């Protein structure tokens, strides 16, 4: 709008704003109007135009202009005033003469500057921003913007209308799912526009539009004519008419269709059933001649025209091709839909179900797949070998994607009985029973299963099952800290020509990365993750890929990469929230982060609330780490009995399992709770059991935790010097493997014991100050506050200050800031008092002063107020 400023040179300007219906031209024009300087005069077409000042003339929807208005614009623009800025908007597809904004006589004089601005569809990023503005970031899960962009074709008005439909459901409906976008139907505005355009095409030429709707993909003129049942010349004429009436759009490369799937859906819904059936039959004949045959699309057309036999053939061929190409997720979606809702004859159901089961275990969770497989396995007429194969994959689905480990292992055990004499699926079932994460089987049983699986797989001669068993063998050995596992990782078939081998190699690498995190081999874990996730993505192993992403969250927690970690974990929960085993990593990380910040209610919710892994049936390393956090939380509340009870239950689970490196996140807290409950002998037995379970194991995290555990036991039984040495060895071990949070916690213990042993408060102050700084850097608000509280008790001796209380005026004192931060995190006055060794009444006074000084309206608003003040 610089041309409208009084200082602008006197040269007329014409701005042509062009774009299809709904792309946001009116909004752009409105923004240009708002940007015009106050000195510019707005005039109506036909009014006398002053020549001594800038003038803005806006004419929208010129494609609808009457002859009189067009003539007036011709007259004005043939000899425009020097200070005129004229803005014309139009839909190019509806201009009476294509490309000529003012008809066939469009002509612009040389001194008129003409600028064209084309408004096109929104890109994905713009759709995402629009969705967040309309619904809020918390109601925009991953995949929602992609679904909106696909359904709308990026047309701004359609995006807005779909968002209005989603918003109308209200927060009570919960977070909208991407799949819901397809269920919304076509917004009335788009439906009216499309049907108006379709009806503007003469009836005898309208089949070309209907054919495009049925094909539902950009098609050539010849393809459209063939499906419409028109000869070449009439088909070409019909296409030209449809394009001129904007019923169809050019889609590039000599193809034509609709601007969005919703537009095509509108036309299909309007088309009478018998006409649709005929069009689908022609479309099926057309697609069957392509090479390669698009079997999935062909299946859709055959089913729509009632060709059930041809549909079944196409479904099976499509699924087989998807499996061969490593796209098991697509195959599973197609097969589960066919088996759940399609006319599949009884003799074909086991065959399709076997294929579905095989694909489902590689992909992501689907309750529909689970229900279909359950129903088929229950068929008494099913041959035992077929039942065993389907039961095997059902067991894997239950164990992994569904998180129902006990039920899944029961199905796997039944599958072993059914699969006698079939070495390939038998070895797979045995290898699955060997996986060590479940709490129901001791490790000795897992070892027995993997040894049997290795033998059967070797006898089978099948490279894919050998790769599957090798991947599980890695998991079984590495999780115990067995050094022999590393050489097995090197033998995984990463470069095999067989996609099944590559998928199992990807799974083995991601599982090895997960085991490495629990062991404390963090650099190795990061390398394995990079390789495993990339291979999983290339080979279509979606579940393994997601496993890798979940493992990355735990790895970043352990190594102190906390900035943005909570947000990434929440996103992962949104994406994988229906799969308990997958989401367990993210929920654990969220719980641990919340604990360090003093967000104790949130910590409990993440660790034990809806969607969290069950401590008694979930993955043992996750349960052990979660129990460690819950014990620590109970100790912070001075709930010694509750802490000891949780410690006993968690220790019992580990003792049953027999994989002691998994005690690394539990042992220090469990032993502390047991000692403080008065069971000193039991605590000593626990420490000894932990130490014995690590003999010969390559588990640096557990080794550091063992020194920590010994330090706790020594400190709580009055041996401060010994405890100090243990804590220092533990801190050094944690620093060596780059675990900054645990290193700081154990250094605090060492400082505490140094003070108790020799009264060296100066040394203790230095260490505690370093630890408080480390906690601050991590964002561990609660730990920083606890450490500063201990510092405050020491500093009067170590750092004498002048008499009298310092005055802070309107600024928060250090203590008030400390209390306010914990209160903003959600801690109660009593919890803050326990943390900072204050009385609840003192905390209440500090909170009141912090609210007054910060300008917060309530306790809940303290966090925002503190951030805004930079306090």
TrEMBL record:
Pfam families: GerE. GO terms for biological process: regulation of DNA-templated transcription. GO terms for cellular component: cytoplasm. Residues 805-870 form the HTH luxR-type domain. The lineage of its organism: Bacteria, Bacillati, Actinomycetota, Actinomycetes, Kitasatosporales. Keywords: ATP-binding, Nucleotide-binding. Residues 852-871 are annotated as: Disordered. The keyword Nucleotide-binding applies. GO terms for molecular function: adenylate cyclase activity; ATP binding; DNA binding. It comes from the Bacteria. InterPro entries: P-loop_NTPase, Sig_transdc_resp-reg_C-effctor, Tscrpt_reg_LuxR_C, WH-like_DNA-bd_sf. This is HTH luxR-type domain-containing protein. PROSITE patterns: HTH_LUXR_1, HTH_LUXR_2.
